[in-house]
User: Fold this.
Amino acid sequence: MFVAVSAIDSAELAVEAASVIRRLDADPNLRISDLNLPVLDVPEPNWEDVLAAGPDRALLQRNLEHCSIWLVQIAATLLQAVPVDEVG
Assistant:
């Protein structure tokens, strides 16, 4: 969902992700940190589009435990903005 509401080129991302997966599959001992991936300055999403897409609260809550500080910040920001479902 994030890619859909950001300026990230989804086709380019898919190619890069496939390359990383092939490398990880080829060497089971390889860690993502071993891949020497570039550090990216990911643009902030269009928050109105994110909220209109109806983010999954359970997934956002799980992302609060992620090792990526950036992902935790995005998840926390979205959780603040997404209405809490009525509990019946």
